[in-house]
C-alpha cells in the first residue's frame, strides 16, 4: 500500500483503498463508506481545525481571519471552542474514523499566548475522543510537549508550495535550509514523519519526494485544494 493520501473531496473509495492512511473531510464520509475503507486495511483520519473556525459567528472567534481560506481565528482556550472541537472529534470517531488530523497549529508567530491552550486542547481530544492515531500538521512551536500527545507529524509544504491558484514552485534556498533544520529536529522524536508538498509538474513532484526521503519523511504531493488521489 502507498503510505498516505490527503484528499478533501468525496467518494473515490476505490482510489483511497490503495493507501495505508487517508486524511479526509469528516463531513464528507459516512459510516458505511468508512467501513469499506477499513475492510481494505485503510486507516482513516478525520480533518479537525484547532485554531480557525469556518462556521457562523461565535463568541470564541477573533475579528481577524485567515487571508487564504477565510476562516476566523479563535481564542483557543475559550471553553465554548474547546467543547465544540472535542465534540467534533468525538463525532468523527463515532462515525468510524480511526484517527484525527489536527490542523492550524502554527500560532507561535501570531497568538503565542494560546500555545498552552492548544496543547491542552490536543490532550483533551486524545483523552475524550480516544482516537487510535493523531497526526499533527506542523505545530513546531508546541514541541517537545506535543510529541507526547500525537503519533505523527506532517510537515506541510516542506519542499514545494503553491504560490497562487495556478502557480507552484520550490521554496527559495534560505527557506529550504530552515525547513531542513526543523526536519532534523523532528528526527529526535519517536514519531511518524510525513511531508505534504504541492506541485504541478513531474519534475517538481520528483524533487519533493526525493527531498522528503532524505529527511526520513513519507511524502504525498497534491494540488492547492487537495483534489488528487
Short structural summary:
It comes from Nonomuraea mangrovi. It is built from six helices and 13 strands.
Secondary structure blueprint with pairings:
Blueprint: E1 2-7, H1 13-16, E2 19-24, H2 31-39, E3 43-49, E4 52-53, E5 61-65, E6 72-74, H3 79-95, E7 99-103, H4 115-129, E8 133-137, E9 152-156, E10 160-164, E11 167-170, H5 173-186, E12 192-198, H6 202-214, E13 218-222
Parallel strand pairs: 1-2, 2-3, 3-7, 7-8, 8-9, 9-12, 12-13
Antiparallel strand pairs: 4-6, 5-6, 10-11
Helix pairs in contact: 3-4
Describe the structure.
The chain has one domain (2-222): Aldolase class I (TIM Barrel, Alpha-Beta Barrel). Helix content is 31%, strand content 28%. The protein is built from 6 helices and 13 strands. Helix 3 runs parallel beside helix 4 (115-129). The model has no long low-confidence stretch (mean pLDDT 96). This is Glycoside-hydrolase family GH114 TIM-barrel domain-containing protein. InterPro entries: Aldolase_TIM, GH.
